[in-house]
Write a structure and sequence with these properties.
This protein has 441 residues and is α/β, with parallel strands linked by helices. The chain folds into two domains: 3-276, no CATH class; 383-441, no CATH class. The protein has eleven helices and 21 strands. The strands form two sheets. Strands 3, 4, 6, 7, 9, 11, 13, 15, 17, 19 and 20 form an eleven-stranded mixed β-sheet that branches. Helix 8 (382-389) crosses helix 9 and helix 9 (395-411) packs antiparallel against helix 10 (417-429). The radius of gyration is 21 Å and the shape is globular. The protein starts with a helix and ends with a helix. 45% of the residues are buried.
């Protein structure tokens, strides 16, 4: 057993001792046994061939949530969606902050709790649903999350409820002098014909050195509709591994908007199971990298039934010596006739040293389907640069404007105007001459 695994084992034994009366302890132990046996993935595994996680495995992160970090009101105001009237849950270094959260005045029968609270008050429901929409064997990081669940969010939207206010879940990480890991676990259950918007925001402060290992499970009942936004703004010294898993029933619709602009090493996995006819998923993604950042996006959509649809559109903007990865896979199972599946990945390289690995895949076992995929890699259009320069726009500003236009095509797919405005502000802030660009757009 190597040093890193021994460290995780020691932390796990400490957690099990703290949670010794926890009904979930057997599941924790089972998950940790799988992790201990398999270890961390290496580049020899096909799904990880482009992403080396050694920078994570070499560090001995503390895995027990014990946050005494103070967040100022100014820091909070800069992070939260203040212009939105949100149902708000805030976590600081993995621990729920009642001070900055707002889950009052909820509609009748809507259940929203932090996961530590739900373990006590919603045991019967969690026993039926927690870990049912993700395969613990699928990833060492998922098993690690299951073993170390301490907090996160549990949401149960009742049938026929249209939730007008978005639910905002913000995970803030701030330097506390020790390198630490958090393992947030989110469980979202949508009743029949329910509708909701959920924002997951991961943000780092003060260039903190930490590891976020997040897992989100969603289950959509018949006719349910969920718009899910994940905004990853981890610190430049942070590592982020995220797994979003959705299980969809008849005529349900899931929208995934994934925006990644932070982190030193990032991996976003999205796994979707279209289990009944009429299920539909739209996956919309943007990743922007600079310096030596590494961002890997892996998606998998399983079409199990006929008349299901999936549409994936991801764009990458890469600068410096950064590296991006897109691996999107669609599996059309036998009997899943008359399905439609589309994939597109476009990448803009702003530097000669930037690198992209793109691999859209189709695996089809049915014959009456409409499926296509494509990938493009390019640089800024010289004709468009010349056109803008001829309008008295300097070269750097012109390049930033064209970069913004490329990225904004993804943001334009967002229907929630307040979220769209926030993301456009974040993108512009990443570009040179941001104040000038705001005058043009």
């Amino acid at each position: 057993m190597n040093k890193t695994i021994r460290h995780y084992l020691a932390d796990f034994k400490q957690l099990q001792n703290i949670k010794k009366d926890d009904w979930f302890s057997k599941q924790r132990q089972s998950a940790f046994n799988i992790f201990q046996e398999s270890g961390f993935p290496s580049t020899r595994k096909e799904n990880w061939k482009y992403t080396d996680v050694k920078p994570i495995t070499k560090k001995l992160f503390s895995n027990i949530t014990n946050s005494n970090v103070v967040i100022s009101d100014n820091e909070i105001d800069a992070i939260l969606f203040k212009e939105l009237e949100c149902i708000e849950l805030v976590f600081v270094n993995g621990a729920y902050s009642e001070k900055y959260s707002n889950i009052k005045n909820l509609p009748n029968k809507l259940t929203i709790r932090n996961m530590a609270n739900a373990f006590v008050n919603d045991e019967d429901f969690l026993k039926k649903h927690l870990s049912q929409y993700v395969n613990d064997d699928s990833s060492s990081f998922v098993t690690l999350n299951t073993a170390f669940i301490q907090d996160g969010v549990y949401i149960n939207v009742p049938s026929d409820l249209t939730l007008e206010r978005p639910i905002s879940i913000t995970y803030i990480s701030k330097d506390n002098s020790n390198i630490f890991a958090t393992h947030p676990r989110n469980l979202i259950f949508m009743g029949e014909n329910s509708k909701a918007t959920i924002i997951e925001n991961y943000i780092g402060i003060d260039d903190a050195n930490y590891f976020t290992n997040a897992v989100t499970e969603t289950s959509l009942s018949q006719g349910a509709s969920l718009k899910h936004y994940k905004i990853q703004q981890e610190s430049s010294n942070a590592f982020h591994i995220g797994s979003l898993n959705t299980s969809q029933n008849k005529d349900s619709r899931f929208e995934s908007h994934s925006i990644s602009i932070g982190g030193a090493l990032v991996r976003n996995d999205i796994n979707a199971r279209l289990n009944k006819e009429g299920a539909e998923i739209m996956m919309n993604g943007l990743y922007m990298t600079d310096n030596a950042q590494h961002i890997d996006n892996h998606t998998r959509v399983d079409h199990f039934k006929p008349l299901t649809q999936s549409n994936q559109n991801y764009r990458g903007v890469l600068n410096g010596k950064s590296r991006g990865v897109f691996n999107g896979k669609v599996v059309v199972h036998p009997q899943a006739q008359k399905i439609e599946a589309y994939q597109n990945n476009a990448n803009l390289l702003l530097s000669d040293d930037a690198e992209i690995d793109t691999k859209p895949e189709l695996e089809i076992y049915a014959d009456d389907v409409k499926c296509n995929h494509g990938a493009t890699i390019g640089q800024l259009d010289n004709d468009m640069l010349f056109y803008l320069r001829s309008r008295a726009i300097d070269e750097q500003t012109a390049r930033s404007l064209l970069t913004y236009a490329f990225a904004d095509e993804i943001i334009n797919n967002i229907s929630f105007q307040s979220i769209k405005n926030k993301l456009e502000h974040l993108i512009i802030g990443r570009l040179p001459d941001s104040s000038l660009i705001r005058e043009y757009v």
